[in-house]
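> example.struct
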């Protein structure tokens, strides 16, 4: 049995980060490496073992004769007595010429598979978290030359280089997604930019037409916004926009598309929504905005919005038409005194 001892709470902290998945093409390359390694070292078994939460599992298995292991075989790793457990816990190379001749190892689980000989090295993620081990096992006493051990170390380094590239690629992909999100979003209100709104809404409208669903659009304008900026300052105007965006984000559904198309002009695309539902949503939004109070130097500032609503059935024409119709309804709200909701009715 192994000689290194650590407490279980420490063992459970060995992996601290969610690491990216290993691409299939990388797994295939590792498969070739492990099979080649086992053949060159003339052993029945070459493995990459992986630590996944409380389990130590066979991740890659050499395609060699008399290999008793299969991909997916696993053991609860902590306290299992497996050869690889000691390698992970110690972070060091482990060699056992013949477990049956060593009281520390003669009862370990691998001996039950007649794997009495072992040589293994730890594999780590770039941040030091243990990935698992690379190892070879034999059913007889086996000593390895310096060149053979160097071969395994080289393979280990190839795998760790792969892990580093996988981690780096994942980070770059996450960064690209974040930058794309920033490019598509208005930083003040979290609404989509005009271009992003049109791109996403066109796709959603196309889906609605294919599935014969009705959609609606809301055009929204903050009333007398220039006057608010001139009287209280642009910082108060920014606060008003920010609060407006916060209210919309908390009211809309996940599938609703919220965009900023001008300084104080906004638009919301409501999939699978008839005009009755759109009017109810618009009235709730108008009411909530009217109740906002923005802190200012000498008290608070309130503002209102005017909203125009248009409905688009699946047989209707493109996105721009429904937007123009909602804009016409918005104009009607403004002409009627602002702080109200109007529905486009000229169809």
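> example.seq
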């Amino acid at each position: 049995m192994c000689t290194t001892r650590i407490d279980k709470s420490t063992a459970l902290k060995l992996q601290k980060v969610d690491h990216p998945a290993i691409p299939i093409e990388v797994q295939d390359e590792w498969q070739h490496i492990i099979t080649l390694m086992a053949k060159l070292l003339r052993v029945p078994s070459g493995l990459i073992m992986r630590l996944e939460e409380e389990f130590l599992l066979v991740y890659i298995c050499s395609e060699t004769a008399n290999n008793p292991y299969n991909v997916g075989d696993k053991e609860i790793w902590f306290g299992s007595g497996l050869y690889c457990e000691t390698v992970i816990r110690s972070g060091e190379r482990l060699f056992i010429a013949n477990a049956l001749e060593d009281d520390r190892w003669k009862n370990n689980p691998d001996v039950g598979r007649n794997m009495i000989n072992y040589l293994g090295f730890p594999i780590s993620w770039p941040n030091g978290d243990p990935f698992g081990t690379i190892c070879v096992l034999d059913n007889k006493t086996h000593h390895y030359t310096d060149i053979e051990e160097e071969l395994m170390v080289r393979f280990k380094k190839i795998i760790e280089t792969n892990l580093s590239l996988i981690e780096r690629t994942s980070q770059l992909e996450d960064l690209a997604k974040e930058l794309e999100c920033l490019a598509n979003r208005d930083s003040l209100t979290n609404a989509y930019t005009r271009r992003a709104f049109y791109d996403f809404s066109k796709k959603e409208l196309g889906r609605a037409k294919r599935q014969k669903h009705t959609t609606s659009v809301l055009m929204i304008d903050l009333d007398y916004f220039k006057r608010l900026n001139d009287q209280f300052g642009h910082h108060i105007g920014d606060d008003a926009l920010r609060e407006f965006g916060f209210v919309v984000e908390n009211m809309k559904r996940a599938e609703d598309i919220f965009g900023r198309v001008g300084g104080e002009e906004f638009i919301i695309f409501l999939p699978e929504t008839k005009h009755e539902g759109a009017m109810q949503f618009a009235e709730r939004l108008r009411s909530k905005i009217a109740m906002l109070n923005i802190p200012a130097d000498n008290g608070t500032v309130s503002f209102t919005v005017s909203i125009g609503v248009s409905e688009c059935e699946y047989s209707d024409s493109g996105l721009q038409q429904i937007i123009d119709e909602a804009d016409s309804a918005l104009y009607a709200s403004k002409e009627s005194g602002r702080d109200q909701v109007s529905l486009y009715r000229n169809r």
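> remarks
The two ends are 83 Å apart (CA to CA).
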